[in-house]
Specification:
This protein has 397 residues and is of the alpha/beta class. It is built from 14 helices and 17 strands. It starts with 16 loop residues before the first strand and ends in a 5-residue tail after the last helix.
Length: 397
């Protein structure tokens, strides 16, 4: 499905102030950026605007500030400096978002220059989509560009607000994300294999339901597998579980059977007596998890079963780890899945953001994937078939 909203290609930006919402919500340690993926993802749109003579005003959130004013450790200044380092562009950071200092900095801009505003969430009105916030921001631009896919599912002041006052179009990242994540369901190359992990069935039930209408094989891993085990009549010991979601899990299994979808669950499980970096794992059949043990990863037989299914795929969608991959001794299952996707060079592999990306980075396999989404929550809502408020607010083609 072609992207149905206007993009920066469809509008004249020469000499115009372009207010652009980016996703510079990057991890920081001691004031240093530890992963600049999201900044790099915004550079194609920024470069296009600079090359076409725009005055580029960038805004983003970072972290989870309280909303009562500046919090220096969550300032966007390091992101502005990183953008300048990566591009060589003329980038000015201003420690203001909605006030006179921001307005003066923007008024002084020349075409081709970039101003990065301070963290939009230092004011609690941002998350409430306060109209006053939207109005103040819109006064800093002639055109609004949304390129923050990671927040496109949030109806917040800097995401949807300016679209009420300014011509609003998409950046290249947003366009590519929406196109990629919707097109895999329209006409995927088959076999289409989806891998869904993570901790809770409750948070992924809509995704699982939607996938069962499209895929040939659905692979389940992570903490959510134990709720499926309960649905099969197994005991799961101390494992993560959602008893209220056993019935929906049963319905998912029935739907898979009805739709002719092969639903794969772990046949063996790595368990431990506690959760922690010092925990020692042992492999047991998934149907025989001891009462005093908790599941931490898929077992080696399951890893082989899953890898074989992935090896035969023409399209792969993956969201969520197979276990507690943060602890090295419980990372084998997630690594096996990541390596299987990487080894299948003939498939289109789409990674739905979130912890799957952290896993790929841990195993140094990110460059082997066809597309890695920059937004976990937003990508899941798209996969679920929902509309994203940020996208809906943009002008139609």
């Amino acid at each position: 499905m072609a992207f149905e909203k206007k993009t920066v290609r469809d509008i004249d930006v020469d000499g115009k102030r372009v207010l652009m919402r980016v996703d510079f919500n990057v991890p920081l340690e001691d004031g240093k950026i530890t992963d600049d993926t999201r900044i790099k993802a915004a550079i194609p749109t920024i470069t296009y605007l600079v090359d076409h003579g725009a005055k580029v005003v960038l805004m983003s959130h970072l972290g989870r500030p309280k909303g009562d004013g500046p919090e220096p450790e969550l300032s966007l200044k390091p992101a502005a400096e990183k953008l300048a380092d990566l591009t060589g562009f003329d980038v000015t950071f201003v420690d203001d978002t909605y006030g006179d200092k921001a307005k003066k900095a923007v008024d002084a801009m020349e075409p081709g220059q970039i101003v990065v505003l301070e963290n939009v969430r230092f004011d609690k009105r941002e998350k409430k989509n306060d109209p006053e916030i939207a109005k103040k921001l819109s006064e800093l631009g002639d055109i609004f560009v949304l390129d923050a896919f990671g927040t496109a599912h949030r109806a917040q002041g800097s995401v949807v607000g300016p679209a009420a006052y300014l011509p609003a179009v998409a950046g290249f990242l947003l366009e590519k994300e929406v196109d990629t994540l919707t097109s895999i369901f329209k006409n995927p190359a088959r076999p289409f294999v989806a891998i869904v992990g993570g901790s809770k069935v409750s948070s992924k039930i809509g995704v699982l339901d939607h996938l069962l209408d499209s895929v040939d094989t659905l692979i389940i891993g992570g903490g959510m597998a134990y709720t499926f085990f309960l649905a099969k009549g197994y005991t799961v010991g101390e494992s993560l579980q959602e008893p209220d979601w056993v019935e929906p899990a049963k319905q998912m299994m029935e739907k898979a059977k009805k739709n002719g979808v092969k639903l794969l669950l772990p046949i063996d499980t790595v368990v431990a007596d506690h959760y922690g970096p010092d925990a020692v794992g042992e492999v047991v059949p998934s149907s025989a998890i001891p009462d005093d043990r908790m599941g931490m990863d898929i077992g080696p037989e399951t890893a082989k079963l899953y890898a074989d299914a992935i090896a035969g795929a023409a399209t792969v969608f993956w969201n969520g780890p197979m276990g507690v991959f943060e602890f090295d001794q419980f990372s084998d299952g997630t690594r096996a899945v990541a390596e299987a996707v990487a080894d299948n060079e003939d498939c289109t592999s789409i990674i739905g953001g979130g912890d799957s990306v952290a896993a790929l980075n841990k195993f140094a396999l990110a460059d082997k994937m066809s597309w890695i989404s920059t937004g976990g929550g937003a990508s899941m809502e798209l996969v679920e078939g929902k509309e994203l408020p940020g996208v809906e607010a943009l002008q139609d083609k």
